[in-house]
Amino acid sequence: MDLPTLDFAKSLRDKLRVDMNNFTDDLANGQCTSFEQYKELCGVIRGLAFAERHLIDLAENLERADNE
Fold first, then answer.
1. Under a CB-based contact definition with an 8 Å cutoff, are residues 26 and 41 in contact?
2. Cβ atoms within 10 Å of 16's Cβ, excluding its own
């Protein structure tokens, strides 16, 4: 994988992780005032986790392809 792509993937993954941690902290600290807000926040965290996993998988696939 070329360096700009690797840097982009790492930067995006870092941003996803920061956002996920911030939302998780909000959830743990009782920021939700209703069950609807709780469900929404859980969905946001889940979506960020999916995005991070897809990004990790893509980077691994690109790296594997470069090594073949």
1. yes
2. 20
